[in-house]
């Protein structure tokens, strides 16, 4: 009864009556894996041991490298997709144990302790109406303590709430290289340029230009994880030159794209 694909585990599998307090699943794949929007009755912590994830919730889209994990409270609607070769894990927490865990979806930086506890728990065989034995219970408490105490990481792309702006934002997430300027996007979305400019700031905390830049950088992380050359990424995302892309990337992440990819591979 342990899920084998953490990205699209059947809610009926992880929420079955009498299931133990914690269920952990491990999944692998050599191709892109995608889960459609869904929710679980349990809280869910998931991440990758190798590769990159894109995770969407109602209020944001996150690109999550292997050094981070995503926490979702119970009944929180979400979708996820992997990029390239992938090894991932999920820990599903019974709803009654989530009261003192984060109340909002967030990303956290994983610790060595959390990773080892999750890998240990992945070898358990959950049984209906059979509680965790004391050694397993102690490992489960370690996982809960790590979720409770690890600091959230400000990683992601906040989405606007206004339906017209959300349509524009989703189009940019799908293809962040599109060359339309603010006025052209406003016309495409049947909204005034002034409204787009004002509401992007009030609803996302970013100007439209900064938000679009962030969308491009989030996509660049996916492309780096897939092994694409830096020059190809720059051109595909609409930058005039590779050096322009490298400069923007370094300003945002503190390192060049090449160094970031080396660290991503090393963390995996």
Polypeptide structure, described:
With 268 residues, the chain is of the alpha+beta class. It has two domains: 11-153, Jelly Rolls (Sandwich); 159-267, Arc Repressor Mutant, subunit A (Orthogonal Bundle), CATH 1.10.10.60. The chain contains ten helices and nine strands. Strands 1, 2, 3, 4, 5, 6, 7, 8 and 9 form a nine-stranded antiparallel sheet that branches. The longest helix has 18 residues, at 208-225. The chain starts with 10 loop residues before the first helix and ends with a helix.
CATH topology of the largest domain: Jelly Rolls
Compute the separation of the termini in Å.
27 Å
Rg, alpha carbons: 20 Å
Shape call: globular
The topology string of helices and strands comes to HEEEEEEEHHEEHHHHHHH
Question: What is the number of domains?
Answer: 2
Mind describing the biggest β-sheet? Answer: 9 strands, antiparallel
Low-confidence stretches: none
Average of the residue pLDDT scores:
84
Number of extended strands: 9
List the keywords:
single chain; 268 residues; alpha+beta; Jelly Rolls; Arc Repressor Mutant, subunit A; 10 helices; 23% strand
């Amino acid at each position: 009864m342990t899920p084998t694909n953490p990205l699209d585990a059947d809610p009926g599998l992880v929420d079955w009556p009498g299931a133990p307090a914690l269920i952990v699943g491990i999944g692998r794949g050599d191709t892109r894996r995608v889960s459609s929007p869904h929710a679980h009755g349990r809280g869910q912590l998931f991440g990758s041991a190798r590769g990159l994830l894109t995770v969407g919730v109602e209020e944001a889209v996150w690109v999550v490298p292997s050094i981070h994990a995503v926490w979702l409270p119970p009944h929180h609607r979400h979708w996820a997709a992997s990029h390239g070769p992938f090894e991932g894990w999920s820990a599903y927490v019974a709803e009654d144990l989530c009261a003192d865990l984060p109340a909002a979806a967030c990303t956290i930086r994983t610790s060595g302790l959390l990773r080892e506890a999750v890998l240990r728990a992945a070898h358990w065989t959950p049984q209906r109406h059979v509680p965790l034995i004391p050694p397993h219970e102690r490992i489960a408490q370690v996982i809960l303590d790590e979720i409770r105490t690890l600091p959230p990481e400000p990683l992601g792309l906040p989405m606007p709430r206004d339906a017209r702006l959300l349509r524009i934002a989703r189009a940019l997430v799908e293809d962040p290289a599109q060359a339309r300027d603010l006025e052209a996007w406003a016309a495409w979305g049947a909204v005034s340029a002034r409204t787009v400019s004002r509401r992007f700031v009030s609803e996302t905390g970013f100007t439209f230009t900064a938000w679009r830049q962030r969308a491009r950088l989030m996509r660049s992380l996916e492309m780096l994880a897939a092994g694409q050359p830096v020059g190809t990424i720059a051109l595909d995302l609409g930058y005039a030159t590779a050096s322009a892309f490298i400069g923007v990337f370094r300003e945002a992440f503190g390192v060049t794209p090449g160094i970031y990819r080396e660290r991503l591979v090393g963390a995996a």
